[in-house]
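From the pipeline queue, job 12 of 40. The input is one protein chain; the requested action is below.

Action: predict structure.
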Amino acid sequence: MTATELPSSLIPTLPGSAYTDPQVFALEQEKIFERMWFCAVRADDLAGPGSFRTVQVGRESVLVTRARDHSVKAFLNICRHRGARLCTEETGEVKRAFQCSYHAWTYGLDGKLVAAPNLTSMPDVDRTTYGLVPVQVREWLGYVWVCLADEPPSFEADVIAAATERLGDPAAIDRYQVDRLAVGRRIRYEVRANWKLIIENFMECYHCATIHPELTEVLPEFAGGYAAQYYVGHGAAFAGEAEGFTVDGSAGVERIPTVSEDQDRKYYAITVKPQVFVNLVPDHVIVHRMFPLAADHTVVECDWLFVRDVVDADVDVSRSVELFHRVNVQDFDACERCQPAMDSRAYRAGGVLVPSEHHIGAFHEWVTDRLRG
């Protein structure tokens, strides 16, 4: 049976090579991750001037730092002299400047070239022209978003609208005050799977009854197999006996005070392409950021965000964290079970999507269109 002969209940997936071919992944790096807004760093991670983090965005290492005026700057993490990697650590802090360990070219926190051996004998070298290559930066939801494109797409359309349209009310996400919350826990997952498998998994709940017993205890509607939260304005209601969004259904922590009554005791899920998941519940927010490193290797950094008083008082948040940590492990294990089969002759033409997964087809069309562009 060919794809054109599939029964109406089934639609085709992408072919297996879309998840394994290095050339496909290189094209995705160029046409997706290097052209779109990419959620890079939690702004609070840049505590003060000189604090920095380096992140991989497509094929580029990006240096994100806080300048002397406390604004956030981003640059390609490359010395302009001979191309050495400027900062080799993932995170750190410098006092006044970044210095290349190869020939000691030195750059201010604003990216300007401030010193180099024998620089005074080269008066024709413009310190701005030979400064670090800047990267576009925006801040939203308490995160730093970067874009490598020479002409970035609209942040309002590609990020803010994409995140708010699913909630129906554009102001709905503002009630969670995500930018004012604090990181109560961060877990980094090394996933031996393609980034698209992770997105596809997050987009559907056909698997929920099979591998997420703890989640379906708290969100019983998920046991039915339909990810109904993908319909605009819909939040999945907590089970009647669940006191909070915790691994055992016990009460959580202090509720985010601005969450509305109609958002109480509900879970909302949002995907912001190409690499962010936002999960909203009344007392915390969970943000996943994906960093695709190879066709079969994705790092996922997951933040659990709580009211700042909860974090400052060192309130026990373990039951809240444990619920979605288990969900993450269960999901990533499933993705890793799929990844080796993407090279199988049985999956050469791809697989199929049942009706509760048909919306994944729109994601596949989006990827295909981006790679054609």
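Job complete. Residues 318-338 form the longest helix (21 residues).
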